[in-house]
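Lab notebook, bench 4. Still working through the backlog of constructs that have no structural model yet. Next entry is a single chain of 186 residues. Request: give me the structure tokens for it.
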Amino acid sequence: MDRTVITGGTPLRGEVQISGAKNAALPILASTILGGGECVITNVPRVVDVVTMGKLLGILGAKVQFEENRAVINAAVITSTQAPYDLVKTMRASVLVLGPLLARWGEATVSMPGGCAIGSRPVNLHLAGLAKMGADVSMEHGYIRAKAKRLRGAQIYCDTPTVTGTENLMMAAVLADGTTILEDLC
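Model written out:
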């Protein structure tokens, strides 16, 4: 068994730079779609999933630059509302662009997310919540298609915990008319 032995008696001194969390950075990066301008996000970890989210935002038309531990994203112009299978299959969190695209542009086509090492993580609560907000949601050839002229605030109840679903619905609610309430285990 490997072990680390620390002998005390000497005060610790120094500084350590702590990286941001990937699972916080991914929804923040997706949320840049909502603003329509330049966003500067600091303390962004340089991990594969963050780079993949940057590529996805670029495919949608956003200008994306990574500089050391910062991401500079300008989503003023979005040229596509389709998140392609080739990227979404590699990172489940790609589904986080669904709510922001739908809220800002009135439509989104996002490939069903790929598998997850944790196990089955369906997106049915994301879709049911968006439908409650007035979206027409369908599944076609492995893609989630959602359309709405304008989302409306809604009271949404989730009977199963869903962190990504909550993030997606919160982002969609930002530009919806009215108030959205997420209840119970969302």
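Notes after review: Residues 20 and 98 are 23 Å apart (CA to CA). The two ends are 41 Å apart (CA to CA). Flag for follow-up if needed.
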